Amino acid sequence: MKYDLIIVGAGPSGIFTAFELNRSHPEKKILLLEQGKPIEKRNCPKDKTKKCINCQPYCNITTGFSGAGAFSDGKLSLSPEVGGDLPELIGYDYVQELIEYTDNIYLQFGADKKVEGVESKEEIKEIRRKAIEAGLKLVDCPIRHLGTEKAQEIYQKIQNHLMNNGVDIKFGTQTTDIIVEDGVIKGVDVTDSLKKTSGEKFYADNVVISAGRKGADWLESLCVQHGISHRAGTVDIGVRVEVRNEIMERVNNILYESKLIGYPAPFKDKVRTFCQNPGGFVSQENYDNNLAVVNGHSYKDRKSNNTNLAILSSHNFSHPFNQPIKYGAKVSELLNMLGGGRILVQRYGDILDGKRTWQNELSRSNVVPTLPDAVAGDITSAMPYRTMTNIINFIEALNTVVPGFAAAETLLYGPEVKFYSNKVEISQEFETNIKKLYCLGDASGWTRGLMMASLMGVRMGQILSNK
After folding, report:
1. Dist. CA 230–CA 32, nearest whole Å
2. What is the rounded CA–CA span in Å between residue 401 and residue 404?
3. Which end of the chain is less enclosed by CB atoms within 10 A, N or C?
4. How far is CA 64 from CA 15, 42, 127, 347, in A?
5. Which phi-psi region, left, alpha or beta, contains residue 24 (left: φ > 0; alpha: ψ -120 to 50)?
6. H or E segment to which residue 16 belongs
7. What angle (nearest 5°) sits at the alpha carbon of residue 413, between those of residues 408 and 417?
8. Which residues contact 360 (CB under 8 A, 6 or more apart)?
9. Do you find a cis peptide bond into 320, omega within 30 degrees of 0?
């Protein structure tokens, strides 16, 4: 069968492309290809095993309907200032319009109506004053918190809606290549994700690639193979920090998520906080080649005694180096090697003292790790000097805004690496230099996070509706 549209990847950008085009043109034949499982069959055995067992052929936390979004903390950032570079492409004000439009779709499917970070204006001013004192910028960003478990319920409803309205979704289907003739996309080659059976071809007038962070490396190789214009983007490398809720209580209550940006000496690289989870849990995600990276979850109803957040250092490379994704993977591999294939955790005070952390030291700390199978060790033995220096100096600055954040027992987990550093050259309508081939979401390098990826999909659906 030939389709009007094939979408590769059922992450937020792919889902919302299908949703928006199906809503305006239900007669259009849409095929959504997903390597993983439907959302109701996605589960992580770690809840029972208490440790990661490296599920094969892919991690259910990163792969499946709604991508890593279904198992993230589930936060919608309602500001164009957060979530990537899309405003540079299509305009700040227009992105704000799309945020509001997309947010209403989430509300239709049951998102919490409460928006965090819009009250307590005087208290926010005081936090900003302290941030300025520390040389940091506080980014105003209202947050709609879905919650990890509630996000799964919302995406389940969206999945059911698409299937009930005629969108053809093929799970367990890995896209191996694209079919291009005379500079025009014609279709895709696929294979069974589990059986690796002989390939099958699907054809369409338009193809959208929305492979997510999980597929960023694959998309980069596709760019090289087919001459899709792209460039090396920013690679974000860092750690996930965990402290007691008491340390973050005031900021959590006022802002829910404090988005802070700094350019600490001596390198003046951009360093930022990301994905703050009050009462949350540190988690592990596995990528290709059993690469283990750290993340964080925040539930609506289930809470811990800790708050976790990422601190990410941005690095931009120039000629002749053009493989930032592989650079981030190599750093992750070194950290995984030191942890015996697991996430490393180290106390901040031990980093300053130049020593590794031992398990018996963790056991007597006020901060009880919420990732129980993390391995106590030495992150600094594998983290690049420049990145580690940026992180330490940023933590010291953040201590001015949040007294106690730089305490000796503050926990640092590594690696936290964001695989979206391949940036595809696209038009304002998201089309690549291959005609009728479009790239969206985090894999494209233009977005970061649920809301920006979702609204990029919404806009893609609108564009295709007018063609």
Report:
1. 24
2. 9
3. N
4. 12, 7, 39, 34
5. alpha
6. helix 12-24
7. 135
8. none
9. yes
